[in-house]
Amino acid sequence: MVTSRARRANPIVTVIRAVVTVIVVIIVLHIVLFVFEANPANDAVDTIADWSDWLTRWAKDFFTPDNPKVRVTVNCGLAVLVYLGAAALLERLAHRV
User: How many angstroms separate the CA atoms of 41 and 39, rounded?
Assistant: First the structure.
């Protein structure tokens, strides 16, 4: 049986999901723009690349394949997985509060 407390939205979980969603969207957008060779001189492309670089700085060159597209995809993809895993862990902890 589901309790009334379990039915209520936990605001902490909502914030965690919102923040991680924004982070993941930025990183995935960067991957897509890089792989499809978007114009790096474009302000939007440059801004997304800067934000993604800041969010994935710890994963930069974690793996070093020769192909730069593969390198960005693998390293940024790793960062996405870590952010999603950390969010899942934080959500479980927040549900216990």
Answer: 5
